[in-house]
Amino acid sequence: MDNKKQEIISLLDTMDNNTLEWLLYLIKLRHKSGDNINYSMNPDVKEIWDKACKLMEVELTEVSYNTWIKGIVPIEIAESNFKLGIVNQFNKEIIEGRYIKLIEDALFYVTDINFDVEFIV
Predict the structure, then answer these.
(1) How far, in Å, are 52, 76, 93 from residue 80 at the CA level?
(2) What is the pLDDT of residues 2-50, one digit of tens each?
(3) What is the DSSP string of 86-121?
(4) Pseudo-torsion of CA 49, 55, 59, 63, nearest 10°?
(5) CA-based nearest residue to 65, from 52, 80, 47, 79
(6) Which of 81, 95, 87, 99 lies closest to 22, judged by CA?
(7) E strand or H helix at 76, and its extent?
(8) pTM of the full predicted structure?
(9) What is residue 60's DSSP assignment?
(10) 35 vs 58: CA distance, rounded Å
(11) CA angle, residues 60, 66, 69, in degrees to nearest 5
């Protein structure tokens, strides 16, 4: 266990700020929920999400993007499901009500796949 901690600590120094924010969010989300959510370590998921976010950032105001989209964490792709982590139920309801179509369209534009987007709190 100590070897894993040391390896993680040494890797943290090589990560950019966005990756560190994403990792911190995952850790907090996991700690808060207490669930054993299977976060994907597949870099394709993050790469797809990052590209989709760039598209959405252009479509939204800076405030809307930073408030509702920026904190979403890509979790995994399972067949035609794209799972995203959301910080709380309130944000989930707002995002499902206002931004689901934008998210689905951005993911389609990036991948040419019609994903069913699933939010996990």
Answers:
(1) 16, 11, 22
(2) 777 777 788 778 877 767 776 776 666 555 544 444 444 466 899 999 9
(3) -S-HHHHHHHHHHTHHHHHHHHHHHHS---EEEEE-
(4) 50
(5) 52
(6) 87
(7) strand 73-78
(8) 0.67
(9) S
(10) 34
(11) 75
Per-residue pLDDT of 57-106, as tens digits, reads 999 999 999 999 999 999 999 888 999 999 899 999 999 999 999 999 99
One-letter amino acid at 23 equals L
Helix (H, G, I), strand (E, B), or coil: what is residue 82?
A: strand
- For 111, the token pair is 């991948």
Q: What's the token pair of residue 83? A: 């799972």
CA distances from 52 to 25, 34, 45, 101, 106 (A): 19, 29, 11, 12, 5
- 92 residue type, one letter: K
